[in-house]
């Protein structure tokens, strides 16, 4: 069972050309996958930073709207109180003050 190098190369069990092509395709696919993974990781970091900035901006806008709403609510309350006083409908702060001895 002695196989000479000439016999192995002349009658191979594996087609080396197909093996080389298959290995290069697999290597190329692996390199492409690594590149895509690296790009995705970089983009996710950028998006997370962008989302943080967007969240901060949204929080600031919510706070501004809340403050404006409170100001409007206080203004409307004072206006309504003035109207109630004008027409004698204003309620006293302590309704039980009349019943004190």
From TrEMBL:
Single GO cellular component term: membrane
InterPro entries linked to this entry: PTTG1IP
Topological type in the membrane: Single-pass type I membrane protein
Protein keywords: Membrane, Signal, Transmembrane, Transmembrane helix
Keyword presence, Membrane: yes
Single Gene Ontology BP annotation: protein import into nucleus
Segments of this protein annotated with the region Disordered: 50-75
Main location: membrane
Basic and acidic residues: bias regions: 51-75
UniProt-annotated location(s): Membrane
Transmembrane intervals: 18-44
Record-given protein name: Pituitary tumor-transforming gene 1 protein-interacting protein
Lineage, broadest ranks: Eukaryota, Metazoa, Chordata, Craniata, Vertebrata
């Amino acid at each position: 069972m002695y196989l000479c190098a000439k016999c192995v190369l002349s009658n191979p069990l594996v087609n080396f050309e197909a093996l080389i092509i298959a290995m290069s395709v697999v290597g190329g696919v692996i390199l492409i996958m690594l590149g895509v993974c690296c790009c995705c990781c970089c983009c996710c970091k950028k998006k997370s930073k962008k989302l943080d900035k967007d969240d901060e901006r949204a929080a600031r806008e919510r706070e501004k709207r809340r403050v404006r709403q409170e100001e409007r609510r206080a203004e409307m309350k004072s206006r309504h109180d003035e109207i109630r006083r004008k027409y004698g409908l204003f309620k006293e702060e302590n309704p039980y003050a009349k019943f004190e001895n």
